[in-house]
Amino acid sequence: MKDRLTTTSLTALILCVSSGVLSLPLTLNQKLASEIYPSSNIQDAALGTSVFCDTCEWAVDKLQKMFESNVSEDLIAKAIIEFCELFKIEDEYICSTIVPEFKDEVLYIFAHTFLSPREICAQVLGSDCADSYDPFNQTWNLPIPPNKPPVKPVPSPQSGSPVNRILQLSDIHWDIQYTPGLTTECGEPLCCRPPNKKATNPEDAAGIWGDSHCDPPYKTIVNLMEHLNKTADQFDWVYVTGDLPAHNDWSQTRDNQTKVLVNITKLIKTYLPGKPVYFTIGNHESSPVNSFPPPFITGEQSLSWFLDKAAEVWGEWLTDDAIKTLKKAGYYSVYVKPDLKVISLQTNFCNSGNWWLLINSTDPGDMLKWLIDELLESEKKGEKVHIIGHIPPGTQTCMEPWSTVYHHIIWRFESTVIGQFLGHVHEDTFSVFFADEENTTRPINVAYLSPSVTPVGGMNLGYRIYDIDGTYKGSTRATLDHSTYILNITDANLTNKPKWTLEYSAKDAYNMTSLLPVDWANLIETFIKEDSLFQKYYHYHFKNISPNDQCTKGCKCGTLNDLTFNKTIDCQQATQEEIFAYMSTQHNC
Predict the structure, then answer these.
(1) Helices and strands in the chain: count of H runs, count of E runs
(2) Distance from C-alpha of 178 to C-alpha of 186, rounded to nearest angstrom
(3) What is the DSSP letter of 318?
(4) Pairing status of strand 163-169 against strand 461-469
(5) What φ, ψ does residue 51 adopt, rounded to 5°?
(6) How many CB atoms lie within 10 A of CB 499?
(7) Is the peptide bond before 189 cis (omega within 30 degrees of 0)?
(8) Of 139, 122, 120, nearest to 131 (Cα)?
(9) Nearest CA to 260 among 92, 91, 454?
(10) With CB atoms 3.0 to 4.6 Å apart as the test, which of 126, 277, 512, 554 could cross-link to 238 if both were Cys?
(11) Do residues 358 and 122 lie in contact, with contact meaning Cβ atoms separated by under 8 Å?
(12) Torsional sign, CA 231, 236, 237, 239
């Protein structure tokens, strides 16, 4: 989703904490602002970056001094709420609920980070506040094993060869409190739920099966599972790539998050009995959102409350070794077939919204070192590997140093890693990795970013099934095709008969003979030349919610560049201003 609470919940709390931890009565907050900017209205002044930076620096400095003076955290939280309301960062309800949600984490991190007040403000408000040390963007490296094997062409399977099929479900975002009839236009980050009121305009009323502005209700998730149960012969195993809970980031608790984890897992076990299922952890799994402390954080602040429960409910599909690393830090590996290993990564260790990484962001949990060891072992055995995760490396929500090291690993093991399956972005898209060399013309891998189950963000609901080279001696395990299925939410609400239908298959829609990395790279070049094919992709990108929309100039240039990990597409048809305008509409999920 275009999630306001990744930008404004940390800009409603963390901006309140770092730019507004004014642990003074509200009247003194007003007095302070008037003293700093005597000729300006407080709200008008707050619109300027320099105002935010100066106020932020003052506030963080005061916060650090308050820690030294043992000022009550409850008093600090009270002042943050007042600041949130004063500057209208969110409405009164959101301000009063999101601050307690984030308080313990943020105050702990600010107490333990070595950054200066100005440097902390630069993390929240951007580099305009300070040309500072940025722990999220410090270059670091890991030893990459030498002696990369020669890269050999991937042969096409012979006609009639066995095929395996994989179901991918991503970003389900079940909203426990979804209520039909409530307004979809509430002015809050997530609508269709209490305490929002009933819609006065029927067109703004939440439908019985869901709404494209909201996360889905339980009955729609059950309907999806019923549909998958009836079509279970169409896939052999399942990847669930994160984000089970809804986007109500301001009112979540650990108990509620584990309730969603347990219930969604139970639904899958009930409706897909006998199917192996492999999960990854999304950025919305934790409470508060994006809070994934590395293993060196222990005790009450650790993530053990979630990881222990995940190991318990996912345990039937995992080995003892997989459970051990899952409970340690949220990642694991397991064999789905004797020649095919699945590696589930904890991509929140690259999450730029994970503030625990302000303490140390160098290979959190030693996961990438572990990944190298796993891949080296598989290389020696001649195995193939699928990597599953939530946040796609190379995107704005994955820290650049982590993404860079990850790319080096993919390049080194390009003959072993045969597929990457991720989510998070909600849109239906892909990302081509090019060679880890000065000449970035050779595509080496492709990451498939699955459409989300949730329609929030103005889309339909969706899921995907992949065809891969099947189980037989000499199988390449390469992805042969993928098919995307959608639920038209408007039609479901009008007819009260939800229908999950095939939207498209990649080979048919894009006239592809195979789905190797070079084929996806060639498709990008075709998109540049054949606008009609690009517009078809753009409609699939949003699960066909608005088939008449057109993506041109800056939108097209930005979208094309989103399809490559480490290569820039030259867009001569778009101005810099148009490209920046497109980029400004892209937000974290």
Answers:
(1) 20, 12
(2) 13
(3) S
(4) antiparallel
(5) -65, -50
(6) 12
(7) no
(8) 122
(9) 454
(10) 277
(11) no
(12) negative
DSSP codes, 435-500? -SSS-TTSEEEEEEEPPPS--TTT--EEEEEEEEE-SSTT----EEEEEEEEE-HHHHHHHS---E
pTM, two decimals, is 0.87
d(CA 188, CA 426): 20
**Percent of the chain that is helix, strand, coil (3-state, to 5):** 45, 15, 45
> CA–CA separation, 386 vs 418, rounded Å?
6
Tokens of 369: 């070192």
Strands lying side by side in the sheet with 332-337: 332-337, 340-344, 384-388, 417-422, 443-449, 429-434
Helices (H), 392-443: 400-412
Whether the CB-CB separation of 222 and 469 falls below 8 Å is answered with no
- Measured in whole angstroms, the distance separating CA 225 from the mean position of its chain's CA atoms is 23
DSSP string computed for 45-63:
HTTSHHHHHHHHHHHHHHH
Q: Angle, to 10 degrees, between the axis of helix 254-271 and the axis of helix 304-314?
A: 10
The per-residue b/e assignment along 294-327, b for 16 or more CB within 10 angstroms, e otherwise, is bbebeeeeebbebbebbbebbeebbeeebbebbb
Token pair of 16 as six digits:
């309140």
pLDDT digit string, tens, across residues 157-194:
988 999 999 999 999 999 999 999 999 999 888 999 99
Q: How do residues 276-324 score in pLDDT, each as one tens digit?
A: 999 999 999 999 999 999 999 999 999 999 999 999 999 999 999 999 9
For the segment 520-543, the average pLDDT, to the nearest whole number, is 95
Residue 229 has which token pair? 């149960």
Taking Cα atoms as reference points, which of 424, 321, 421 lies closest to residue 374? 321
